[in-house]
């Protein structure tokens, strides 16, 4: 049986923070409790993340910054993160299963599986690692950039986050290429007269 890695990401949709990609090669045999990270409680995700890191044959994480997301675009940034996560696996996989409808360019065969985070245990494991790692990064960003509520909404475009954006303007953790952030920058520029914010 080919040594198979599952790959997934967390954070494509938020207005702030990085996108985090994870790759996991699970041991043979059953690994109970795995599911799409979005369907699990935070407590369950954290517990499972610890088990995955302890029991996996290999696992890798990659963090792509908001600046790189703005430079490359979110899709390309995500693909680059997945490439980096797979590159950090030792041993390297012989086959890679990727959640979604497209695969990054890799040195080994890869297959995209829509909804794979719910059906493929290795992708579920990657989904959990990526989500837990990104959530921790967003809690840390909440400490360095207070007022936006990053620890609560994790950078997603909630009503509270949009209100904070309007009130405070964007910070360095925001993705300037995303339309709501651009609008907030333009509004801030109109208020302050600072043309560099446009």
UniProtKB/TrEMBL annotation:
Q: What is its EC number?
A: 3.1.26.4
Purpose: Endonuclease that specifically degrades the RNA of RNA-DNA hybrids.
Top EC class of this enzyme: hydrolase
Alphabetized HAMAP family for the sequence: RNase_HII_B
Protein name in UniProt: Ribonuclease HII
Q: Which residues form the RNase H type-2 domain?
A: 2-190
What UniProt keywords apply to this chain's record, in alphabetical order?
Cytoplasm, Endonuclease, Hydrolase, Manganese, Metal-binding, Nuclease
SUPFAM superfamilies found in the cross-reference section: Ribonuclease H-like (SSF53098)
Which organism encodes this protein?
Answer: Spectribacter acetivorans
Pfam families from the UniProt entry: RNase_HII
What reaction does this enzyme carry out catalytically? Endonucleolytic cleavage to 5'-phosphomonoester
Q: Per its Swiss-Prot or TrEMBL entry, what cofactor is needed?
A: Mg(2+); Mn(2+)
The terms under GO molecular function for this entry are: RNA-DNA hybrid ribonuclease activity
